[in-house]
Amino acid sequence: MPDVQPLVNGFLSQLKKRKIEGSQATAKQTAEVLRSVISQQRLPHTNQAGALIDAVRAVGEQLIAANPVEIAVGNIVRRVLHIIREEDLSLATDAIAGLGISAGSDDEDDVEQDDHPVLSAAAVAAAARSTLRPPSLQTLLEDMPDSAAVPHTSSSGGESEGKSRSADKGSRGRKLKHDVIEAVNDLIQDISTCHEQIAEQAVEHIHHNEVILTLGSSRTVLEFLCAAKEKKRSFRVFVVEGAPRYQGHVLAKDLAARGLQATVITDSAVFAMISRVNMVIVGAHAVMANGGVIAPVGLNMVALAAQRHAVPFVVLAGSHKLCPLYPHNPEVLLNELRSPSELLDFGEFSDCLDSASGAGSLHVVNPAFDYVPPKLVSLFITDTGGHNPSYMYRLIADYYSADDLVVKGRTTAGS
Amino acid sequence: MWYRSASFILDNRQQNVAALAPDTLSISPPGGTTRTSMADTFQNPNPNPVISAYYQTRAAHHGVITSDWLAQAQAATDQNSDPNAISASDVRVSDPDKPFSVIDEFNDWRKQPDLAEAVAAIRALAAVIRSSKATTMMELEIELKKASDSLKSWDETSISLTAGCDLFMRYVTRTAALEYEDFNSAKSRLIERAEKFGEISYKARKVIAMLAQDFIFDGCTILVHGYSRVVLEVLKLAAQNKKLFRVFCTEGRPDRSGLRLSNELAKLDIPVKLLIDSAVAYTMDEVDMVFVGADGVVESGGIINMMGTYQTALVAHSMNKPVYVAAESYKFARLYPLDQKDLAPAPIPIEFGVPVPSKVEIERSARDYTPPQYLTLLFTDLGVLTPSVVSDELIQLYL
After folding, report:
1. Which of A120, A381, B284, B317 has the fewest C-beta atoms under 10 angstroms from its C-beta?
2. DSSP designation for A17
3. B377 touches chain A (CB under 8 A)
4. Exposure b/e, B14-24, CB count within 10 A at least 16 = b
5. What is the ipTM score, two decimals?
C-alpha cells in the first residue's frame, strides 16, 4: 500500500485543485489509480476479496471526498468494487464446480462426506449468486434464512479451499487479483472507447436535412455528429454558445473544421430557434438512477423549450456517467459554484465586488450544472444502446452491486 | 352497464355472477342506502361479499368508527362466513377427521392488527401444509392450490391476500432448493419459511424506513393520506433521526384512519395537522412531498390505495410535488387496471350522519387506482424504484 500512496496523493491533489476535470478524464484516472491500488495490495489467505474491497473503498472514499462534484469518480469506485465481487464469485463457483467433480471421482474414499459437500456447495453457490443480484421478489422468500450466512460465504469458501488444498492458496490469490486487474483494464478500455461506441449509433438517429441543436461542448456530441457526417448525412447544427464558458464556440469551430454546417446562437435565442429544430442532442455530466441528468448549466432551459415544441431531447452518456444514486441523496453534491471571473472582468468591477469595504456588494453566482428531470429527456444513448429514462435503473443494476451504493457512509460507520 | 370497460376483469366478474346466481343477474346499478348489506349477502350466494372484508378489517384495525357501524360490520362478517364455509369444504374433503378451513385460519390471523394481510395469508397456507396428509410434493401442491384458490375467491377485494398466496405458491412450485430434499424436510422447510414471512414483512418495513430517510429533509412538510404502517414507520424513524418536519394528515373518510395516524404521530411529538379530505388542494402549496402507503402495487407501477389517493396524487402532480409510495414488495400484484372501474369494487359502509333518502345513490368504493404517471418513486424493500420497475420485477417472478 505505501507504494501507491504518492500516486493516490497526486491524483487527490489534482482533483482538489480542479486541475483535472471532465468525467471521462477523471473516470479513467480513477480506474488507473484503483488498478495500481489493487496490484499493490497484499492479500491475506482468507477473505481476499474482502481485503481488496476494503483497500479500494478506503482509497475511493478519499477520491470521492476530494471532488464530490465529479460524480464519475464515485461511479468508477463502485464499478471496481462490483468487479471485485463478481470476480470473486466466479472464482468461488469455479472452485465449487471443481469440488463437485473431484468428489464424484474419488467417492470410494469418503462416501459419508460425499453427498453432503455437493449439496452444500450448490447451496453456497445459490446464496453467493443472490448476493450480487439486487433484491427481488423472486428471492424474497428464499433468501431470508440464509441472509446471515451470505456475507461470509466467499470467505468460508476461501477457507475450506485453503484448508483442503494448501498449495492452491497462493495461486488462487494471484488468480483473483489477476482477474480483477484484467476486468479493470477492460473498464478503462471501455471508458476510452465509449465515444466510438456511442458514435456508431449516430446514423440511426440523425437523418438527412435535419436540424440538430446542441449546447456547450461535449466530445461525445462532436464524435456523434461527425460519425453521422461520415456516413454522408447532410444536416445543420445549431450550437448554443453556453455562457459563461462559451465552449459552444469551440465546438462550432471543430464542427466547421470537419465540414459540418454549424450555426452559433446565443443562450437566449434557444426558444426562438427551437421550433426549427428536429432534435436536441447534448452531453451530460452525470445520469442519476431515476433518469435525471446533471448537465452543463443552461440545459434545463433547452429541455423545457424542447418539450414545449415536442422536440426529442437526446442525451449522450458513456456508461461511466451512470450514477447509482438519486439526486435527492445528500451524498450527491449537485452543483459547484465557479469563479466569478468567468462572468465579470475583475478590473472593471473590482469596486463593487469588494464587500469588505462596504462600498459595493455585488454578488456573482456562477453555477456549473443544471438538473434536467427525467420527464424532459426523450432518450439516453449510452455505449450499450438507446434507453428510456425509466430504464436507467436496469443498467445500474447491471453495473453496480447494492452493497456499494454508500461508499462513504459504510466506511465511516465501520471505522 | 353504462360503465362497461374494455377489461376482461370486469367481464369475468359479471360472468361469474351470471354463472353462480342467474336469478340475481339483474343487479341494478348499486342501489341506495335502502339496500342493506346484510340482506344482500343473504340473497347472494357468490363468494364475493358485498362488503369488502379486507377494508372492513383495515377499518377495524386502523380506523375510528362509531360503534353502531362497527356492530353492523360485525353482523356483515358473520353473515359472510356462511357461504364461505361451503366454499372451504373442498379443503375439508382432504382431511375428513379434523375439520379444517383455511379461511377460518386466515381470519384468525387477520384479526391481529399488527399482522400484514399477506402474512396472514401465508400463515394460513402454512397451516394447510401442517394439517395436510399428503405424501408427495405433487399432492401437497394440489392441496395448497385449492386452499389458495378458495382463500382468494373468499375475498377478491384484498390484493395483499392474492399477492401473498401467489408469492407463496410460486415459491412452493418453482423453488430449486426444494428439489434437493425429501418430502418431509421440504414440508418442514416450507412451514419454516411461512413462519419466517412475518419477520420478512417486519424487516421490509424497516428497510423501507431506512431508504426513505434520504428523502426527508429538515424543515419539510409531508402530506400523508390514510393510515399505513409503513408510512408510520418511515416517519417514526425520521423523528428518531432528529429530523425536523411536520406532517399534514388527511382525515381519511369514511374509516377516518387519518385521525388514528395523527394520534400516533402526536405521540411521537411530530408536529401534525389534521385536514379534511377536501382540503388537500388548499394546503398543497405548503406541502413538500406526499407520502402514501399502498394496498397493492399493480403491474403498470400504479397503486391501489384508500379512496382519495388518486385525487391527492393528481393535485400534487399538478403542483409539481413529488408523490412517494411506501409499499412492501409482496404487495406487487399481477393486475393491470386500465381505469378506476376496472377493479372489482370494494364497497364499505359509509356513514353520512343523517339518513340519506332512498333515491340517492351512494358511492361506496373503499379504494381507487392511481396511475403511475402521478407517482414519483416507490420505496420498497427491493430498493427505491421508479414505477416502471414494478412490471419488471413481476415479470421476473412469474414468467
Report:
1. A120
2. T
3. yes
4. eebbeeeeeee
5. 0.70
Paired sense of beta strands B303-306 and B367-370, if any? antiparallel
C-alpha angle A45-A47-A48 in degrees, rounded to nearest 5: 70
| 3 state SS for A136-147 | CHHHHHHHHHHC
Closest CA to A265 of A280, A243, A281: A243
Q: Choose the closest CB to B175 out of A142, A291, A393.
A: A142
* pLDDT above 70 for A241: yes
Contact list, B238 vs chain A (CB under 8 Å): none
Task: Using the 3D structure, point to which of A192, A212, A227 is the last residue of a domain.
Answer: A192
Please state the rounded mean pLDDT for residues B61-90: 49
pLDDT at A228: 93
Q: Which 8-state DSSP code applies to residue A135?
A: P
Does the beta carbon of B241 lie under 8 angstroms from any beta carbon of chain A? no
The domain boundary residue, chosen from A158, A192, A226: A192
A22/A92 same-domain check: yes
Residues in chain A: 415
Per the document, the length of chain B is 399
Greatest pairwise CA separation for chain B in angstroms: 65
If one counts every other C-beta atom within 10 angstroms of the C-beta of residue B344, the result is: 18
Number of neighbours of residue A184 by Cβ within 10 angstroms: 25
User: Domain range for residue A293?
Assistant: 201-414
Who among A134, A142, A393 is closest to B386 (CB)? A393
Give phi and psi for A394, each to the nearest 5. Answer: -70, -45
Backbone angles phi, psi at B362, to 5 degrees: -125, 135
Q: What is the mean pLDDT of chain A?
A: 80
HSE, side-chain direction, 13 A CA sphere, residue B237:
17
Q: What pLDDT, on the 0 to 100 scale, is given for residue A118?
A: 45
Q: How many CB pairs under 8 A join A and B?
A: 73
Contact assessment for residue B153 and residue B84, using Cβ atoms and an 8 Å cutoff: no
Q: Which domains are present in chain B?
A: 32-204 (1.20.120), 206-398 (3.40.50.10470)
Positions of B marked active-site? 295
Q: How far apart are CA B173 and CA B171, in angstroms?
A: 6
Contact A50, A153 (CB under 8 A): no
Q: Assign B231 to helix, strand or coil.
A: helix
φ and ψ at residue B250, rounded to 5 degrees: -80, 160
Q: Which strands sit side by side in the sheet containing A379-382, from one edge to the other?
A: A261-265, A236-240, A211-215, A279-283, A313-316, A379-382, A385-387
Query: What is the DSSP code (8-state) at residue A400?
Result: -
Distances (CA, A) of B301 to A86, A112, B308: 31, 51, 18
Give the separation between CA B88 and CA B102, rounded to whole angstroms: 7
One domain, residues A175 and A260: no
In this structure, are A113 and A161 located in the same domain? yes
Nearest CA to B230 out of B123, B53, B381 is that of B381
Pull the grid cell for residue B25: 343477474
Which residues lie below 8 Å from residue B147, measured CB to CB, with a gap of 6+?
Answer: B91, B102, B124, B125, B128
Helix, strand, or coil (residue A84): helix
pLDDT band at B41 (very low <50, low <70, confident <90, very high): very low
β-bridge partners, B232: none
Residues A263 and A284 reside in one and the same domain: yes
Is B332 at the interface with chain A, CB within 8 A? Answer: yes
Kind of pairing, strands A369-372 and A211-215? unpaired
Q: For A329, which residue in chain B has the nearest alpha carbon?
A: B214
Q: How confident is the model at residue A142 (pLDDT cuts 50, 70, 90)?
A: low
The answer to whether residues A146 and A210 belong to one domain is: no
Residue A237: predicted pLDDT: 95
Same domain? A231 vs A82: no
Of A274, A264, A271, A272, nearest to A241 by C-alpha is: A264
Domain count, chain A: 2
Residue A414: band (very low, low, confident or very high) from pLDDT cuts 50, 70, 90: very low
Residue type, A46: T
